[in-house]
Design goal:
CATH topology of the largest domain: Rossmann fold
CATH class of the largest domain: Alpha Beta
Number of helices: 9
Structural class: alpha/beta
CATH architecture of the largest domain: 3-Layer(aba) Sandwich
CATH superfamily of the largest domain: P-loop containing nucleotide triphosphate hydrolases
Shape: globular
């Protein structure tokens, strides 16, 4: 089984690539979805956060992400502690996913902070989806309603695109249409006959 990680900055189009791969029948794990599930469903995660931050960290039965962000801003040690714990849990889930589909020729994992957490060596290949800063900002403002300040703040916590390009095995330029993006992905998965029978 070939393990491929998909990564990229927020708004780059990595999730679009993941969705397209699923439509082609490939197995794709989503790190963001795993985090969401941990915050909403995992009792041990909630208990750990209550131990650290008190009962106020839980809102309507889920981890209060807004309160968590506030705690991160107040003290960077809070951010580091939470990220170290959550990243380990996410990593365990990703490897469980890959183990479940070990009969497949290739399995993908979408990992937004792949290089930031230094997980690239856990995969056989890394695909980085990139777009220009202007296009990225326009997408996030148009499709997610994010302010320029919020976008800049999120990008501040991520490694620069130049650094990621230097680390990636494959760079997917997502500057044009969806059709062009799909064409680039098709070329990548077809180059070695990397097809799964997932029906």
């Amino acid at each position: 089984m070939k393990k491929i990680a998909i990564t990229g900055s927020i708004g780059s189009g990595k999730s679009t690539v993941s969705q397209y791969l699923r439509s082609r029948g490939f197995y794709v794990a989503d790190s963001d979805a795993i985090v969401k599930d941990l915050y909403q469903q995992d009792a041990s995660v909630k208990a750990k956060f209550v131990e650290w931050f008190g009962e106020s960290i839980i809102l309507n039965g889920d981890v209060d992400k807004r309160r968590l962000k506030q705690l991160f801003l107040e003290d960077q040690h809070n951010r580091k502690k939470v990220e170290t714990y959550v990243h380990q849990r996410v990593k365990e889930r990703l490897f469980d996913f890959m183990d479940q589909h070990s009969e497949s020729a290739v399995v993908f994992c979408e990992v937004p902070l792949l290089f930031e957490v230094n997980w690239q060596h856990e995969f056989d290949e890394t695909w980085l989806v990139v777009t220009s800063r202007d296009v990225l900002i326009k997408r996030l403002q148009s499709y997610r309603g994010m302010s320029l300040e919020a976008i800049e703040h999120m990008l501040m916590w991520q490694m620069s695109v130049e650094e990621k390009i230097a680390k990636a095995d494959v760079v997917i330029e997502n500057q044009g249409s969806l059709e062009r993006l799909y064409e680039l992905v098709d070329q990548l998965v077809d180059r070695e006959g990397e097809r799964n029978d997932c029906s």
